[in-house]
Design brief:
Structural class: mainly beta
Low-confidence stretches: none
Number of helices: 0
Helix content: under 10%
Largest sheet: 9 strands, antiparallel
Distance between the termini: 42 Å
Mean pLDDT: 93
Shape: elongated
Length: 112
């Protein structure tokens, strides 16, 4: 959808994470980009299945970020977990230099 020069779109994609969080993800993200500037925002949820520090389970992360085409960067917070990740807490940042291709994340996680 386009309104006032802004493009709104829903992004559903899957990724594989390695590192402290190792596993697969699916996203439910809304991105709004101003067509004339290439700048915008991102918000949504990431659903994670895998391990955190070697403990298995699932978790939901809330994502917020900024877009400056073609890069996307932002932050995440773990808002819930299940199985071995039921008490997982944490936050961090992510950067995609080329939209949703590749990318890195960093942050801290711990178990309550």
């Amino acid at each position: 959808m386009v309104a006032d020069g802004n493009t709104f779109f829903h992004h559903n994609d899957a990724h594989t994470l390695t590192g402290t969080l190792a596993g697969t993800t699916s996203e439910d993200v809304t991105i709004i980009v101003n067509l004339s500037t290439g700048k915008g925002t991102l918000s949504g949820l990431l659903f994670f299945t895998g391990t955190a520090n070697g403990v298995s389970g699932t978790a939901v992360l809330q994502l917020v970020g900024v877009v400056d085409v073609p890069s996307i960067q932002g932050s995440f917070i773990i808002i819930s977990g299940d199985g071995g990740l039921a008490n997982l807490r944490g936050q961090g940042t992510f950067v995609f230099d080329n939209a949703f291709i590749g990318g890195t994340y960093s942050g801290q996680v711990h178990f309550d």
